[in-house]
Amino acid sequence: MTTLTQLAASTAVAALVVLTPALVGAAAPAHATPSQGVTTETLGQVPLSGSVLPEPAGHSALPAQVTATLRRIVIAPGGTTGWHHHLGHVAGVVVSGTLTRQLDDCSWQTSPAGSMVSETPDSDHVGLNLGPEPVVLEVLYLLPEGAPFSTDAPAHCS
């Protein structure tokens, strides 16, 4: 190798050694927890004007345009949604099984079949199935147009 080629190679290796930790850290959220054992099915979807809908109790006002989506979510025994949050309003009912959630303040909520559940926009949480049968949820999402159903979040609690 020529001296110039060796210098270029050495510089490239040094740059990788210095930059790789920063690039890896920037590519993935710290301690994000993936979902496991979760399946979803979209049952219906319609765009709506947020102004024609009542403001959800205890939640912030809806944006001018929302997409209303009804989904069935099934969490297998031992399954988890992973830590996440929603960019809009989410409310649903536990059809069967028992949903256990840990919220961003590290408190726990247990919701057996027949329970109503709701989630405040941008509030991190994780849903778990600690029981022996699948948890089945029917959930209505009122999200800003184009928003994903959920956004990964880092784990909050040990």
Automatic annotation (TrEMBL):
Signal peptide limits:
1-32
Asked whether the keyword Cytoplasm is assigned, the reply is no
Pfam families the record matches: Cupin_2
Keywords assigned by UniProt, alphabetized: Signal
Residue span, Cupin type-2 domain = 73-137
- Domain of life according to the entry: Bacteria
What is the native source organism of this protein?
A: Rhodococcus spelaei
Q: What is this protein called?
A: Cupin domain-containing protein
